[in-house]
Every structure is written in C-alpha cells, then in structure tokens.
Specification:
The protein is of the alpha+beta class and about 375 residues long. About 50% of the residues lie in helices and about 15% in strands. A hairpin with a 4-residue loop joins strand 4 and strand 5.
Length: about 375
C-alpha cells in the first residue's frame, strides 16, 4: 500500500487509530509534507493529530533508517532507564514493518524551532535553555544492554558520513553538479582532510545520539501551563545511533551559524566579510541563546570547567563538520554550487582551523 493524501485517513481507520465518528466530529484535515519520505499530517482541531511517514525508496538503507527510528521510540516506551529519551520523543502509535509506515502523535499548536524563530523574528533564550537541558539529560543516560532485543541490530555504531566526505568513493548514488563540486573542494584542501580524519579517529561510542539534530527536528509547543511556557520534543530519529554526544551538540551549534549564513544576500564575488553585513539575523543576536543552550547542557552533565572546555571544543569542531553535510544537502539537486554553500564551506574550514576562536568570537561562548 502506497499512502497518499486521499487514502491516509482510511489507513488510520483500518489500523484502529481513528474512529469513523471522529473523522467528522474532529474536523479531520490532511496536509502533505512529503520530502525524502512520504509525510502526512492529520490534524484534529485541538486534539492530538497524527504524523505519518512512509519510505519512498524501498532500498535496504532507507528501510533500515525508518526501522531505527521506530526502534528508538520502542526503547523509550519499554526501557525504564531511558526516561530522558521518553520525555523528548514523540508519542509512537504504530510501526507497520510490512508497509514501512511509522505513525506518531502530532501535538496541536506545535511548530518546528525554525518556524518558531522565523515567526517571532527572534531567538528566545528560554527555548534554547530548554533544549540544552533536554539534550544534556539524554546524554547523561547510559544505554541499557540491548542483548536479546530486536533493537540491537538497528544501531550501526558508525561515525557520520560527513567525517568521510573528503574521501573518494564514500558517497552513493548520482551526484549533482553542485554536490560534486562541493566534494572536489573538500578533497582540494589538506586542512579539511587532516581535521576530518582526526575527528573520525576520535569518534566515541558513548551514548544514544540523535544524529541529525537541527532546528527543523526540534518541535516546540504550549506546555499547557497558565504562564504560557513552552515544551519541546525532538523528532526524526532515523539517524539515531550509539555514538558521540559531541555530534549532537555540534548539530545545534551549527544550526545557528548556518541560519546566519543562509539568510545573507550573496551577490557575485563579494567577499564574505562584506556579505556578512547583509544578514538580517546577525550572529550576535543569536549568541545569548547559544550561551543558554550550552550552559544548560553542561549543567545537566555536571561538567567541571576543564571537561566542559574539552567537550565544547569537540562540539564546535563536529558542528563545523556538520556544516559540510548542511551544504551538501542544500546542493543535492543543484547543477552548480551556490555562493551560500561556498560560504558554509569557508566558515567550516575556518572553525576547524581555529575552534577556540570560533567558540569565543562567533558563538559568544
């Protein structure tokens, strides 16, 4: 069965997740948000709706990533020792392994952190602090033994591909002109090769990590309290793995930098220092939120100053590597590399060469 906007409600009815009366009473509405997967949002007014995801490519790797996400949610539901994970994942309702469909709860009045920032035209410190605390609690939780559980085979325990992106033959599938040029640039700069090799060798298998942490995968919603506080969930756990917590930290740090760069107005061969002045969201405006995120994260892990500094430097460097992935994703279907992608690579290289300077001058830490 291939899901579509016209049959997704029928699928929920067949699975017993919706009743026939509620289809009318709840004023059910369906929106199609298909991207890499077939994605559908089923809204039910003020009630919890549904987010339905089905793979588009039925190859082994794509199927495995959806199974990994479903496995994370199952672990959160069944393992008492993973309470921090259970507190931040969406409510899982169904995993249809035969049709490769995952159904999770959709919170009313929720929006991604990207949408939240754009709507407010601001970067609330409270939300950044909330997410930093949630991520710190997740990384504080030791992974329970998985022997005998189906989830044991779902986690590959592999460094992210971005750390090998400079090596020939590491990418799969056809490359666009833009992504091909991006990889050529990586291979042309020894500093990229050296630092990425170092980070790949330094990769640690320590905790369950999200693997693709960015604003689009952080969802904020009203907590239901009278003071208007927000709560947050982290979604899209397809790249979850047993890995290095610094990668998740870097994912959040680079999200601020990438948003700053990608909103600049590039015009021809103008130097980045000049283009920077066109940014509608200067990085300085984001620094209080960056500090709030990092401070809350480090506090949850109870890191002493030396350990905090070490973790921060690793997070900053992994964030720079994650920027390569962000640039690649932006160029995946582009015939030529864009000025903004080139800027991402330039800033990434600058950070990798001087992470301490980047932490202080760029991130305000």
């Amino acid at each position: 069965m291939i899901l579509s906007r016209s049959n997704v409600v029928h699928y929920l009815l067949d699975q017993g997740l919706l009743g026939y009366d509620s289809v009318v009473d709840d004023e059910v509405m369906v929106s199609d948000s298909t991207r890499r997967n077939r994605n559908f949002k089923v809204l039910r007014g003020a009630k919890q709706g549904f987010f339905i995801k089905q793979v588009q490519g039925w190859d082994a790797q794509t199927v495995a990533t959806l199974a990994a996400e479903a496995g994370c949610y199952r672990l959160a539901r069944e393992e008492p020792g993973l309470s921090a994970l259970a507190a931040i994942v969406p409510r899982d309702l169904l995993y249809d392994a035969q049709r490769h469909i995952l159904v999770t709860g959709l919170l009313p009045n929720a929006e991604s952190l990207m949408e939240h920032h754009r709507r407010l035209n601001a970067f609330p410190v409270e939300v950044a602090r909330l997410l930093g605390g949630q991520l710190g609690r997740l990384h504080r939780e030791p992974m329970p033994p998985l022997e005998g559980r189906a989830e044991a085979s779902l986690f590959r325990r592999q460094p992210p591909w971005a750390l090998s992106s400079h090596l020939s033959g590491t990418m799969f599938g056809a490359l666009s002109g833009g992504s091909s040029k991006l990889l050529q640039i990586l291979q042309a700069y020894p500093d990229f090769q050296r630092t990425l090799d170092e980070m790949r060798r330094d990769w640690r298998l320590e905790r369950l990590v999200h693997g693709d942490l960015k604003w689009e995968n952080c969802v904020v919603y009203p907590a239901g309290s009278e003071d208007g506080r927000l709560d947050a969930r982290i979604v899209d756990w397809e790249l979850a793995d047993i890995g290095d917590p610094a990668w998740d930290v870097g994912g959040m740090l680079q999200a601020y930098i990438c948003f700053w760069i990608l909103t600049m107005q590039f015009d021809g061969e103008v130097p980045l220092a000049t283009v920077e002045k066109t940014a509608p969201y200067p990085i300085a405006r984001m620094q209080p939120s960056i500090r709030a995120f990092w401070t809350a994260y480090a506090a949850e892990l109870e890191l002493d100053p030396q350990a905090a500094d070490t973790m921060l430097m690793r997070g900053v460097k992994y964030g720079a590597a994650r920027m390569i992935q962000t640039a690649y994703e932006a160029m995946q279907y582009s015939p030529q590399i864009s000025p903004s992608a080139l800027a991402l690579l330039q800033v990434s290289l600058n950070i990798l060469k001087e992470p301490k300077r980047a932490a202080t001058e760029l991130l305000g830490l």
